[in-house]
Structures are given as structure tokens and as C-alpha cells.
Amino acid sequence: MIEQFKGTGTAIITPFHKEGNIDFKSFENIIEYQIRNGVNYIVFLGTTGEAVTLSPDERNAVVHFAIEVVNGRLPVVIGIGGNNTRDIIDTMQHTTFEGVDAVLSVSPYYNKPQPKGIFYHYKEIGGACPVPVIMYNVPGRTSSNMDSETTLRIASEVPNVIAIKEASKDLEQCARIIKNKPEGFLVISGNDELTLPFMALGGDGVISVIANAFPSEFSLMVKLCLAEKFGEARKIHLKLLDVVQAIYADGSPSGVKAILAMKGLCNHVVRLPLVKINKGLQNHISGLLEQMDHLNE
Q1: Where does 132-271 have alpha helices with state H?
Q2: What is the reported pLDDT for 117?
Q3: What pLDDT score does 23 carry?
Q4: 55 Cβ contact partners less than 8 Å away, ≥ 6 residues apart
Q5: Is 188 helix (H, G, I), strand (E, B) or coil?
Q6: Helix and strand tally (H, E) in the chain?
Q7: Which residue is catalytic, options 6, 165, 181, 257?
Q8: Residue 1: helix, strand or coil by DSSP?
Q9: Which residues of the chain have pLDDT under 70?
């Protein structure tokens, strides 16, 4: 079961029309773009999908649409998380999981729980969720780091929690988790720019933002890492490095949506409180894409 979450998962964007409602036609095109270009699974309703700005009805519509379009061709992961454990469990009890292969659940944000609180949070979620749970540690957004000891305790004591998306940017912490994790527990990168060194330590793949725009290139790099062909993988890593850094310079997913708009896959539209990237950065990213095109000639 866990093998399907090795490799590249794309944290998919939610495209919007210029008026702000969901653009389902572009959504379908982007999903098909991912499938054609070799990603291993797709994550819907994550941070990159702007899930916090979607209404409950919109979130349900996204899940139903995603399952219909994917149609069993790839595993589907949906985001259900937050800082209210009871509310998350209530959401799970009112969610139809047919066609859903796993849940990605972010570590509680804002209220900054103690490690003991994080452990019991995931213990309750793991017990309530009918599909496997992937934890998500992203202290840059939550202001609360899940230390390696907490992660390893959950991995050992909560059977339904099968993986962590680790986005602490602390490679020492990542190495401790990889070294001491129980058999069958996956450690997945949450930072595109660190995926290669992360996988060199023994990581199992990535849940990626940049794969929205470059699914073929990024998933190939991850496949090469899994095959321990790091010399070949490094070439792709370095080729994409500047554009990976650029998409976060003025807010995410605004940056990657700008690239998708340049590729004609969706509008460059995000919902408030996010705004489009500034014109200077847009020109910079456009120049980086032109340089990459020249390298491909």
C-alpha cells in the first residue's frame, strides 16, 4: 500500500476564473498534464490548492471532480487538517472517501501545541480516518516544529499514520527520522529545493509544488534519486533550482500559477488574501523559462 506514495506527488493548484470561481476545465487539463507526465500521485486541497479559501461546498466539489477525472489512474490524496482536532474528526466523519487513497493532515498551526499534544492529535486523527494518514510538518507556516522524537513516536504507535511530509528544511532532523523510523513508514520531502539531498539521505520522494509546472522533469529527477543515480539527478536539480526558488519569492502558489499561466494551462488568479506576483518577478521568471528552453534546444 505504501509503495504508491513513493516518488513524486504533486500538490496540485486550484485554478480560478478571472471572476474568482473555480475553473474546472483548466483543472481537468492540469490533472491530465500531471498524469501524462509521469507523476506518481496527486494531492488535492493542500496549501498549494488554496484549500483554506474554498468553501465546504467547493472543497467537496474539488474532491468529487478530482476522483472522476483521475478515474483510478493514480492514487488520490486529499488535505484534511487544521488546529482543531474535533473539527478535523467531524470533517472526516462527513467525508465520502470512495476513490481517496490517503489524507494529508498538517500539524496544528497557530495554537503551537506541545509535542504531547501533537502526538495525541495524530493519534485521534489516525483512529478516526478510514484511509491512511500522511502527516505534514511545515514549521514555516505553522510556527510549530514537529521534532523527530514526536514524529517517530507517532510512526511507531499510530498504525494508520504511514508517512510524514517533512518540510522543516532541517536535514539533520530529516536524517534522524529516516535513520530511526519503523519499517514501512515513509519520509517524504516537502521542499522542492532540498529534494535531492533529502533523498540522498534515504527519503522516499516528494510532495511537490514545482511539479505542477514541470511534472516530467521533476518526477524524472525523483525517479533517478530512487535509483541512486544522483549524478544524473543533479543535472535536473540544478537546471530547475533558480525557478524553484523564484516561485516562492512573492508568495505561493502565486508563483507557480504564474508559470502555469505562461504555459497556457490556467489563469494567473489567486484568492485573497493572496495576490498575484509582482511584475518584476513575473519578468524574472519568464526570463528563467526562456533560458531553460534554450538549454533544451
Answers
A1: 139-142, 148-157, 171-180, 195-200, 215-226, 230-246, 254-262
A2: 97
A3: 98
A4: none
A5: strand
A6: 12, 8
A7: 165
A8: coil
A9: 294-297
For each of the domains in the chain, give its residue range(s) and CATH number, in order of start: 2-227 (3.20.20.70)
Write down the pLDDT at residue 292.
87
Under 8 Å between Cβ of 256 and 281: no
pLDDT value at residue 295: 61
Q: In sequence order, what are the residues at sequence separation of 6 or more whose Cβ sits closer than 8 angstroms to the Cβ of residue 173?
A: 145, 147, 148, 166
Place of cell 504507535: 157
pLDDT at 297: 54
Which member of 33, 41, 136, 248 is catalytic? 136
Annotation says 41 is catalytic: no
* pLDDT given for residue 296 in this prediction: 65
Q: Which residue has the cell 467525508?
A: 95
Amino acid at 236: I
Q: For residue 35, what pLDDT is reported?
A: 98
Angle at CA 199, nearest 5°, toward 194 and 205? 90
CA–CA distance, 134 with 44 (Å, rounded to integer):
13
Q: Is 25 a catalytic residue?
A: no
Q: Which three cell numbers stand for residue 108?
A: 496544528
